[in-house]
Amino acid sequence: MHDDGYFDERVAARYDESGELSDAGAVEPVIDFLADLCGSGRALELGIGTGRIALPLAQRGVPVHGIDLSKAMVARLRAKPGGDAIGVTIGDFATTTVDGRFSVAYVVFNTIMNLATQDAQVACFCNVAAHLEPGGCFVVEVLVPELRRLPPGEMIRAFHVSETRWGFDEYDVAIQGLTSHHFEIVDERVQPSRFLAGMRGPRSST
Ligand SMILES: C[S@@+](CC[C@H](N)C(=O)[O-])C[C@H]1O[C@@H](n2cnc3c(N)ncnc32)[C@H](O)[C@@H]1O
Question: Which residue owns the Cα nearest ligand 1 atom 19?
Answer without folding.
Answer: 92
